[in-house]
Design brief:
Layout (H helix, E strand, L loop, with lengths): L6 H16 L3 H5 L18 E6 L3 E2 L4 E10 L12 E9 L7 E3 L2 E3 L8 E4 L5 E13 L2 E13 L3 E8 L10 E7 L2 E8 L7 E8 L7 E10 L5 E3 L5 E8 L6 H6 L3 H4 L2 E4 L3 E3 L2 H4 L2
Parallel strand pairs: 2-9, 10-17
Antiparallel strand pairs: 1-3, 3-7, 4-6, 4-8, 5-7, 8-9, 10-13, 11-12, 11-14, 14-16, 15-18
Length: 284
């Protein structure tokens, strides 16, 4: 005769089933029935989205720069840090004149905390541009967004132009490097290729920096290497050029964004000469 369960007994049996399931086996496993698999990793929905933008804050007119977007957190990640959803960014550029300004790619997935670099192309307008980046963390129907802004100044760089002349009739100057310093601090290096006898090389260097303080400043070019066979026309391995920066006008913002070209655009033509000599000549 089949056994029957009273309503009270049925309720007790169901409670045991729930308890067995929560213990991952327990009573059901003892009866020979396999326990159901546990649920998938749950999103850390309470976790906020974190992110940063990195790249140059100064660009020259019509210049380009690479920018890196990093991100983590939000519903795309489980509580143990495992990524279970999609994390991506969307970028655009704002400014007073964005004609010819672009960011490529405008969107990309963020994998292992970072995305491939995005290239910002700017126009020739001296202005402040704002890179707008939205990082989106998505899992199923959950979507949390972090909005970031990154300010970039388009300014006219300081420019150094020098003509290097080899006055030897027979000897070529083997390639060498020139270090460039501003007020005693090295700001860059330029590689000079081989200069043939009676030949010359037009050196050009641009340095992006915020407006310098008023007063005198000095660029210094230093020959690196050359084994003592190369010198400037003054017989030394260094050549300096000083220039004067006037005081900023009362409207500093105008000076910084627009009027900066008034003194940053100065071009220094250095009549620099390089002489190549043989060691035998140095001993005479």
């Amino acid at each position: 005769m089949a056994a029957t369960l009273s309503p009270r007994a049925s309720a007790l049996f169901l409670a045991l089933l729930v308890l067995a399931g929560s213990l991952g086996g327990g009573l059901l496993a003892a009866g020979g029935t396999a326990a159901a698999p546990g649920p998938a990793l749950a999103p850390a929905s309470a976790s906020q989205v974190n992110g940063t933008v990195q790249g140059p804050k100064l660009l020259g007119p019509s210049g380009t720069g690479e920018y890196y977007v990093n991100g983590s957190g939000g519903p795309a990640f489980a509580a143990n840090g495992t990524q279970i959803g999609n994390l991506s960014y969307f970028a655009s550029v704002a400014g007073s004149n964005t004609t010819g300004v672009s960011i490529t790619p405008g969107s990309a997935a963020i994998v292992n905390g970072s995305a491939p670099p995005a290239t910002l192309q700017v126009n020739a307008v001296f202005q402040t541009l704002t890179l707008l980046v939205s990082i989106s963390s998505v899992y199923q129907k959950q979507n949390v967004t972090l909005n970031l802004t990154y300010s970039i100044q388009v300014i006219q760089p300081y420019r150094i132009v020098a003509t290097l002349v080899n006055h030897s009739n027979t000897t070529s100057v083997i390639g060498f490097n020139i270090s460039i310093a501003l007020d005693g601090t090295v700001v860059g290096n330029v590689t000079v290729p081989t200069i043939a006898a009676r030949g010359e090389y037009n050196l050009s260097f641009q340095y992006l920096v915020l407006p310098l303080a008023s007063g005198w400043h000095t660029f210094t070019l230093t020959i690196l290497g050359g084994r003592g066979l190369i010198s400037f026309a003054n017989g030394a391995t260094q050549y300096s050029q000083s220039f004067y920066i006037p005081g900023a006008p009362p409207n500093y913002e105008l000076w910084y964004v627009v009027g900066v070209v008034a003194f940053v655009g100065v071009v220094f033509i250095l009549a620099t000469r390089v002489a190549a000599r043989r060691r035998g000549q140095l001993r005479r």
